[in-house]
Input
Amino acid sequence: MEKPAAASAMVEPVIRPFVVRFLYGLLAGFVTATLIVALMARQGIAPFETQPLPQPLVARISEGYGDDFPPLKNDNLLRAARGEPVDRVPVWVMRQAGRYLPEFQEVRAKHDFFTVCRTPELACEVTMQPLRRFDLDASIIFSDILVIPQALGITVEMKPGVGPVLPEPLVGPADLERLNQTGTIERLKYVGEAITMMRRMLEGKVPLFGFTGAPWTLMGYMIEGGGSKTMSKAKAWLADYPEASQQLLDILTDQVVDYLVMQVKAGAQMLQVFESSADHLSKEQFLSVSLPCLKRIRVDLLRKLADEQVPAVPMVLFAKGAMHSLAEQAQTGYEVIGLDWTIDPEEARKQVGPNVTLQGNLDPQDMYQTPEKLRELVLTMVRKFGKHRYIANLGHGITPQTPIESMTVLVQAVHDAL
Output
């Protein structure tokens, strides 16, 4: 019975100093922590709050551009835009996600057009549809050029058999006050969400285009109240209200720039600017009304991306009906100039020179030819353009009744041509 007491007496002097030092350490740590918290409070710092990531990193993670997307497996489109060698001539088609596809018609039977645009899951589904059928080298996010007027507060309706209708168009300069320029990009964030979602859905299969309408084209819709064969009201604005016309073009240019910045930050790997109504302008009008806006879009976009440390992406300028001004378009800085079907490929190359990529330019009506004739036309077109600095496409959007087989023939012929 004596042994345990003796052992305890021997161990106690050894343990006690450790216990005392441990307790003193806890007390000192508590006092130090209390002082630190007090000092942080005096500096206005929340003690146990996670500090925000640096802004460029936040953008890279949450807004899409950067290394968090799957690696790109087919970069022929981007290489062609930059003038680099390609494995094969890249091909995509304007409106490739559209009414000629029965699966698109199924989606539209259940959902309003702009509901599809505003719902990222639906927009991505229809964007993916042509890629499941055809060996295309690019995708383009499903949206519409008129989402910018919508975001500015202009009502836009898509009516079956008619197309876009703006029931309350701009009538005179006083109507510019109706445009709500505050928060427009926030109201368009669904496009960015769709782009980011689509980049992940693609799993690096092909690059993803973002796009916008150009200011003159948007101005025309906003004044005409829809599509127009003459653009007489919009052209009357240019003559009768020159200052208001310039003000409207400036507003739209600013909105287009911010919209494209958002698309790049969301993950768009290439951009196309659609000046679809350039054919309503004379060459003089195109150079004075449209081209300055197109130039400023490019310059301001690059500046804003650089300011936010966001890498720039290649850009396509497609001014339908402005083949009279290809030399001037080639000086705007866009890496790619889109061609409509009215110009010969060899003539286009002469006008733009060797340092700009060309895109186009099969007549959409040729898609109704027999498969044999269509293949012959495509082979001839591609061989005229050549493999360097060329992206195959139509000279405008694919039309709703186009046979699906024609898309298969087109894509295969492009890839077989050279």
